[in-house]
Specification:
Layout lengths: L2 H30 L5 H30 L5 H26 L6 H8 L3 H4 L19 H96 L3
Helix pairs in contact: 1-2, 1-3, 1-6, 2-3
């Protein structure tokens, strides 16, 4: 249930309650004049059941809109007050229909709206807990005000979406740069590994050469000693 549709349904429910109040007033008039109110009683029972269903739908729609955060908390509270007023009015209408209470003329005139008929627009009869911003406004004016609030929310969401989009692009750029840095680090790691292998190979070769050099030196000394012994042995005394 969208925000505009909720207000439209609320508007229709208010009109239904107003119609019920008028029918109850007419039913009571017929009873006082000795008429037969059976037909209008059947209509009233069906209308009261419809009123109950409409209020339940309004409660369900408000719950969905509030849980999905499609409307602000202040607007949720305002609409909950409207529903509470409707529930109170429903109880009053049921009690009046059953004859538990009587409906005084001031209630009917209030229900019809003060000056509404002369202006061609019926005022909302249950704006008793309204804020100063909406007090005394017609349904059309409330819808326009709500539309402005929605447009402001949409503008804020668009700005937030633009910021998130820029942050997403920045995150993607940072991710790409990190991927490139990781590739460079991997290349350096491979280069270090190859260099380390080469250093180890060269170290082994140097040790081998040192070992061979030492062996050759000892061999030369031994040969020289043998030559000296032979010369001394054959040299005439």
């Amino acid at each position: 249930m969208s925000q505009d549709l909720w207000l439209q349904n609320y508007d229709a429910t208010c009109r239904l309650a107003q119609e019920i109040a008028e029918n109850i007033h007419e039913r009571n008039r017929q009873q006082r004049t000795g008429g037969n109110p059976s037909k209008i009683n059947m209509t009233l029972r069906a209308s009261l059941q419809k009123l109950k269903q409409n209020i339940a739908q309004l409660k369900e729609g408000l719950l969905r809109a509030s849980s999905t955060r499609r409307i602000m908390q202040s607007e949720t509270d305002r609409r909950q007050n409207l529903i509470d007023d409707l529930l109170t009015r429903e109880k009053q209408l049921n009690a009046t229909f059953k004859g538990d209470i009587t409906e005084p003329e001031p209630s009917r005139s209030t229900l019809m709206g003060q000056g509404g008929a002369s202006q061609g627009v019926a005022a909302n009869p249950w704006l008793v807990n309204e804020t100063e911003e909406t007090r005394g406004l017609t349904f059309g004016e409330i819808k326009q005000q709500q539309q402005r609030v929605i447009e402001a929310q949409d503008a804020g969401l668009d700005a937030l979406a633009a910021v998130i989009s820029r942050q997403k692009i920045m995150g993607q750029d940072i991710g790409n740069e990190l991927d490139e840095q990781n590739e460079i680090i991997d290349d350096l790691s491979h280069l270090v590994d190859r260099t380390d292998d080469r250093i180890r190979n060269e170290t082994r070769r140097v040790k081998l050469v040192e070992t061979k050099s030492a062996s050759c030196g000892m061999l030369v000394v031994i040969v020289l000693l043998l030559i000296a012994i032979i010369v001394i042995a054959v040299w005439p005394m």
